[in-house]
Amino acid sequence: MTARIREFLRTRRPEGPCLVVDLDVVREKYMSFARAMPDTRVFYAVKANPAPEVLSLLADLGSCFDCASIPEIEMALAAGATPDRISFGNTIKKERDVARAHQIGIRLFAVDCEAEVEKIARSAPGARVFCRILSDGADAEWPLSRKFGCDPEMAPAVLEHAHRLGLEAYGVSFHVGSQQRNTEAWDGALASAASIFREMAERGITLKMVNMGGGFPTQYLRQVPEVGAYGQSITSAIRKHFGNRLPETIIEPGRGMVGGAGVIKAEVVLISKKSVKDDVRWVYLDIGKFGGLAETMDEAIRYPILTERDTDEKTPCVIAGPTCDSVDVLYEKTPYDLPVSLAIGDEVLIEGTGAYTTTYSAVAFNGFAPLKAYVI
């Protein structure tokens, strides 16, 4: 929590749950990535937090943008990015959206199968495409499913198909899993990418770029390595697998860029027990899974939670949200220790919430308003 956020909450006293994001933290994070990997372009993952102030700051700093939809592309353009600094990184796109992106100047598209290649060939002739491959995501706190990407052995056929249809087979991408705390996680995926580069060269097609995705973590309850440690490990792996023929490289930080910049202010609505014999209390907040804390699903992301009574004796508590939905329970398998003196009406501060909160907030589920956000 920064002093600027504390002062904002102290003086503004916004009503209801809200997210406060400190742009100074975002600026420093961007500079950290730039220092750690100076030869790699940063494509900020807009889906993590598309606040106009965040996008404008990053555009001014020189960032590029990874976009998943036409509205995200339009947000990046409105923030000052030029089309050559935008990637349409979603592998699942309507053909009319491909055509629209191409019309407004986007030339870099993700694919993971031949059918997606054919859409782009029809609607964005001459565009550059990169093929996303599957990665196991081991050690990630928020592992990714098999929804995006193809088996690495399949990628050369996809890229050659693109080449035959008049597109530029530009490179390979992967994602090692979100909130990846293992700095060595990129090594295996880079080995696969290098193998694809070699096979494509044997087919007479020269690839140029490796998109190393996101995965860079935010600190929650456990310590995470500094950005510089990731930079050293990734740079070493690139040199090991590509030798002197180094490719262009891209990273797509989202959580790692903005997660630590935000704090959610929430309020205790109710404290109760389910049985007179129960040692565990239930603490209900005015924010839950549907209000922006969707990443508490399966308790994957465990946010630091602060109260003004943290020096008091503590007791285990289940934490839940306010909606009339039984899945709106944040932490039950592993309860949080919260102050015994915690009372209805007390404020709690949920740290590390700058990413994937406003964008996951439901639109008026149960009549609750979407999560308000303030960028300072």
Automatic annotation (TrEMBL):
Enzyme class: lyase
N6-(pyridoxal phosphate)lysine modified-residue sites: 47
Organism superkingdom: Bacteria
UniProt-listed GO biological process terms: putrescine biosynthetic process from arginine, via ornithine
Reactions performed catalytically: L-ornithine + H(+) = putrescine + CO2
GO MF: ornithine decarboxylase activity
A cellular component annotation (GO) from this entry: cytoplasm
UniProt keyword list: Lyase, Pyridoxal phosphate
InterPro entries associated with the record: Ala_racemase/Decarboxylase_C, De-COase2_N, De-COase2_pyr-phos_BS, Orn/DAP/Arg_de-COase, Orn_de-COase, PLP-binding_barrel
Protein's UniProt keywords contain Lyase: yes
Species of the source: Prosthecodimorpha hirschii
Identification of the protein by name: ornithine decarboxylase
UniProt domain Orn/DAP/Arg decarboxylase 2 N-terminal: residue ranges: 24-258
Cofactor(s) recorded in Swiss-Prot or TrEMBL: pyridoxal 5'-phosphate
Active site: 324
EC number in record: 4.1.1.17
